[in-house]
Amino acid sequence: MTDDRQSVNSLLPVVYQELRRLAANYLRRERPGQTLQPTALVHEAYLRLMKDKPNRWQNRAHFCAIAAHSMRQILIERARARGAQKRGGARQRVTLDERLMAGGEQSIDLLALDEALERLAAMDPDQARLVELRFFGGLTVEETAEAMEISPATVKRHWTIASAWLARELEGNSHA
Amino acid sequence: MNKERWQRVNEIFHTALEHDTRTRDAYLRAATADDSELLHEVQTLLTSHEKATKFLDRPAWAVAPDLALGDEGSLVGKRIGSYRIVEEIGRGGMGVVYEAEDERLRRTVALKALPPEYTSDPVRRERLTREARAAAALSHPAIATVFYLEEIDGELYIISELVRGRTLREELRDGPIPPSQLLPVLISIATALAAAHERGIVHRDLKPENIIHRDDGAIKVLDFGLARPIDGSGSTMLTAAGSVLGTPGYMAPEQWTPGAAIDGRADIFAFGVIAWELATGVHPFGSDLNALLAGNTPSRSRTFPVPGLDRIAVRAMRPNPAERYPTAPALLADLEAYHRLPVVPPPYDSFRWWQIHQISVSVVNAAAPAAVWTIRQWAGKPYGSTLFVASLTLAALSVALRLNLFFASRVHPESLMEHRARQFPAIAVLDALLAGSLLAAAAILAGDHDAIAAIFVAFAAVMLASLSLIEPATTAAAGLTRPTPKKKSTIEA
């Protein structure tokens, strides 16, 4: 009991800081003056991590994977909840913040992305994990490489084809 | 597509990328042989790769900040049921709060729109309804009243008393709360906790953001009983979100432990953190949640701006709930007893003066046997030596004890009060006897050496005056005397 409590106690702050770091990392790369506040998201992801037995996080890499997975769950759950609120549960496309996107695509269907990612996982679990770490976890190429214990070059290769594949899948979806 | 085929697609795709556009087609046809499906697969991927250069370039929470923040968009200007939304007045984990006009009753209310995580799951929704009902039954001047839980077009809204004023968080931005105002504020919060706990309602998310200092000075605690975990029922991990809820930094250690029973003592913990923060202007654990979770209670500090209040805050913040105040009324009683005491904050460096006093007296005491040594032959053989040995012994013991206190004051200032209380009677007796030995020397010298005897009398007088007048003054100024010694020891026990 005491041992269990001890390990919870020593791990939790590390986890929370790690989540904040993920978000802060992203913010640092952002231009100043933008309004995104990842704190709420981070906090919620953290609560979700709490559900898991904390002593299951063996190391930083393992933690990053769970954090990214939590982010994914939160966003997808919210997107789904929002979709369910609309009449007949029609799926709603999430509009990209236009300040953030200089031209290019206008929107992305997070629910479709989530489903496509499941299909990718069936073909190549590593690539799906990689996308989860990078897109939902916000890790850089180098951080992803570290978390997956592969080289940055391999991360880039996997990312190139996985993102192309997902983009194609979503494109097909959006025409429907 | 199976794994092997996807591997093949990967290889061809990456090799094709190394070719330039002129040789790529030829390569693709050769590599895919007559498998037209494979060729199509790779070609469409290459097209997609060229088109979607920025696809998934940003983290998900930046792509969908509204989802990430649970921001459902502003309701300002809209009409929801009979409520007309006037303006946004705040947002937090539990949704966005608006000032709204209740057109039926023609009054201004606070309307909180709950985010979907709280409302999409029927079980959570049911629990929230129950909690709001309990909260609505709370009627207390220091608690913002919950009027209704409204369900309008499938969405849940909590309608409550609109409180205008500044949150304690806003007040903290201007620095600590002045000591004269602090106690009434803390007593109001404790009163609110006592009233709510009495009805079995635990706040769970008490923090400076949730407490409003109204312009007329009244304190209102918001969101009582509404901060419930959104866990429970769900069969999947998706719906069984967050088994803990609260704000790190104000959460009691047991709130961090999934499944742990939470009672009013979690609020008492948060109260301790808030009391400390309001008094000093800084959070007792700073940004170091490790300290909080490791159960490191902040140590009491002699420079605490509201002397003695740190004792109450520290007890409220004990990591083990059983060591905190058992109930809010117990906390309240201690606060009120404390409030009745005259609060005279010690001057900032009075503690230093106390230390200087200890050192000075030690030097003077050490000088006493030296003085006796110089006159020992005048006093005659047996008297001189006896007096010298006596004064040397007394001085050595007294100096040792005083230096011990001095070093204790540097190493363990938090326990100095008790330490001093134990040692001082002995020190007082030793010093008085030392002064007495000087007076005895003066009595022996009187007649033959009147001038020197007078010096010895003056020496002894200074020592006695220091002991009976200066020492109590510096000690009291340093905050080392206890106003109600009995009470203190029972509480610390």
Question: How is this structure best described in words?
Answer:
The complex is a heterodimer of chains A (176) and B (493). Chain A has one domain (2-88, 101-175). In chain A, helix 1 packs antiparallel against helix 2 (39-51) and helix 4 runs antiparallel to helix 5 (125-136). Chain A has 176 residues and is mostly helical. In chain A, strands 1-2 form a two-stranded antiparallel ribbon. Chain A has helices at 2-29, 39-51, 60-85, 110-123, 125-136, 141-148, 152-175, and strands at residues 94-95, 107-108. Chain A is flat. Chain B is an alpha+beta fold and 493 residues long. Chain B has 4 domains: 3-57; 58-162, Phosphorylase Kinase, domain 1 (2-Layer Sandwich), CATH 3.30.200.20; 165-233 and 244-345, Orthogonal Bundle (Transferase(Phosphotransferase), domain 1); 350-492. Chain B has helices at 3-18, 21-32, 36-51, 60-63, 65-68, 116-119, 122-136, 168-172, 179-198, 264-280, 289-293, 309-316, 328-340, 350-374, 381-411, 416-445, 450-477, 485-492; strands at residues 79-80, 83-92, 95-102, 107-113, 146-152, 155-161, 165-167, 211-214, 219-221. Chain B has a 6-stranded antiparallel beta sheet with strand order 1-2-3-4-6-5. Chain B has a 3-stranded antiparallel beta sheet with strand order 7-8-9. In chain B, helix 1 (3-18) packs across helix 3 (36-51), helix 14 (350-374) runs antiparallel to helix 17 and helix 16 packs antiparallel against helix 17. Chain B is elongated and about 130 Å long. At the A-B interface, helix 1, helix 2, helix 3, helix 5 and helix 7 of A face helix 1, helix 3, helix 4, helix 5 and helix 11 of B.
Radius of gyration of chain B: 36 Å
Note the quaternary state here.
heterodimer
Q: How many runs of DSSP E, i.e. beta strands of chain B?
A: 9
What are the secondary-structure elements of chain B, in order, as H or E?
A: HHHHHEEEEHHEEEHHEEHHHHHHHHH
Structural class of chain B comes to: alpha+beta
Provide mean pLDDT of chain B, rounded.
81
Q: What's the level 1 CATH class of the largest domain in chain B?
A: Mainly Alpha
Beta fraction of the residues of chain B? 5-15%
Q: How would you describe the shape of chain B?
A: elongated
Taking the alpha carbons of the first and last residues of chain A, their distance comes to: 55 Å
Number of domains of chain A: 1
- Low-pLDDT parts of chain A are 1-12, 30-37, 86-106
Structural class of chain A: mainly alpha
Number of domains of chain B: 4
Unreliable stretches of chain B (pLDDT < 50, length at least 5) are 229-246, 483-493
Largest sheet of chain B: 6 strands, antiparallel
The string of secondary-structure elements of chain A, in order, is HHHEEHHHH
Find the biggest chain interface.
Answer: A-B, 63 and 62 residues
- The fourth-level CATH homologous superfamily of the largest domain in chain B is Transferase(Phosphotransferase) domain 1
